[in-house]
Amino acid sequence: MEKALKLLFKILLVFTLVLGVLIMALEISSRRLNPTQEPPRPPEFLACDTNRYPPDQEKIDFLAVLVEKQLQGLPITQEDLDRSMYLVPNHDMVGINGLFCNGMIIISERLPIGARYYVARHELEHLFQSAGVAVDYQDMEFSAHWVATREFPLGLIHTVISSLVGAYQLSPSTWAFLVNIWVMFKFYFLGWK
Ligand SMILES: [Zn+2]
What we know:
193 residues; 3-stranded mixed β-sheet; single chain; binds zinc ion; mainly alpha
């Protein structure tokens, strides 16, 4: 029994050491490769170009209805999100899942359905934050994730997998991929830069 415990302790120690060294290497590399520590944005980003994607007034008006709903404490449904999403093909928002621009919730068509709800709920929370009707403002990114995760836990898994696959395809090497994942994890989940 004691032997087994010792072995377990050794394994844990080695695991912690390896993880520590890996995180340190990622952190040093990420500071060197990406001094601003912002998640990577591709240059061919056209999702917010209004000539290409004219604003949809119906969707913009519906978001105002959702702000009112939130103010009254009513739940946001999947159907609400269906009506608010503005889908854009992947080639105009490579590496980005969703964002709020031109008064609309823009979602990448590349995402599987579950992930679309998760990302749309996240972006909607940002709208609630800016409209002053969100429940929590402490850390805007973190609370947007928290709300979306609470309502669409499976959507989070879909989003993470889809983001990882997308990021890997864009990366010049596996190490560059790991560094990008580290930067995104810090930015979106820990709120660090
Ligand atoms: Zn966000």
